[in-house]
């Protein structure tokens, strides 16, 4: 059994990790940390876990995280990089769901997250946690910087078009028009996510620049093997869970004869957690709620030169905790889908 620790178990990604790991036959949750709630049974805070999780919150010092096989950080940015070196030195694998190990350039990290990176020596070693792209590297990694929720949907949506240096689309005019439910903002008191503010409302944010933009461009450029530039505009929608990304790509002359539906189907045919829908489909966020599945549809309106790729995912599962469990499975040689065979919830 894999002994698991979770640092920051009181947020949405933390409780989602607990939900998924509770049904995972290969792990035992050893510790869940929270300084504020230390001593409180986890199931008292999250009654949905009654009968499934019997540990109590503890401080990081009391938790003895060094005795774990792997520690997940479901924390604000900056926490993992402060604690990761000591855990790694003790032989513990680290999976960070925040941004501490996503960006390879520490100057970019400081620019977008307003803090200096405290262990830049680990950035080169950290593997980006998007299994469909970095599966082999993840298997031998000891430090993972998980992909963000929006970046997951955008990179999966463009992967078949860019991978291996393909010259099918223009790579400097890409646009991702993305919408997320309010849980993406985290479990905290904030005016913009109050029900009376977010309900019956729809708005863009971060139009001048969003911290997921450099991550998306970094990831797409790595996939393509050459610089890629994408304009990313996120929106807040009045729903709890879900991301819907509409991606626009201009087809190059040399790509006009491509069967894009076939291209996507063949690329993802063996990917358990990516579902390419039949031609003409429009995926809905509710079709992936609570699951680790991303659903993709490819459109070419009027058989013209513009591709429209639609991607939906649950931001807390495939966009965060679910794919963190997927990555953990790879790191420990378990079946990749173990603990993640969850049918989406409907309605």
UniProtKB/TrEMBL annotation:
Keywords: Amino-acid biosynthesis, Arginine biosynthesis, Cytoplasm, NADP, Oxidoreductase
Pathway(s) served: Amino-acid biosynthesis; L-arginine biosynthesis; N(2)-acetyl-L-ornithine from L-glutamate: step 3/4
Any one GO MF annotation of this record: NAD binding
Compartment list: Cytoplasm
Any GO BP: L-arginine biosynthetic process
Domain Semialdehyde dehydrogenase NAD-binding: 3-141
Pfam families: Semialdhyde_dh, Semialdhyde_dhC_1
Main enzyme class: oxidoreductase
Reactions mediated catalytically: N-acetyl-L-glutamate 5-semialdehyde + phosphate + NADP(+) = N-acetyl-L-glutamyl 5-phosphate + NADPH + H(+)
Family of this protein: Belongs to the NAGSA dehydrogenase family. Type 1 subfamily.
PANTHER family attached to this UniProt entry: N-ACETYL-GAMMA-GLUTAMYL-PHOSPHATE REDUCTASE, CHLOROPLASTIC-RELATED, N-ACETYL-GAMMA-GLUTAMYL-PHOSPHATE REDUCTASE, CHLOROPLASTIC-RELATED-RELATED
Protein name: N-acetyl-gamma-glutamyl-phosphate reductase
Source species: Andreprevotia lacus DSM 23236
Lineage, top ranks: Bacteria, Pseudomonadati, Pseudomonadota, Betaproteobacteria, Neisseriales
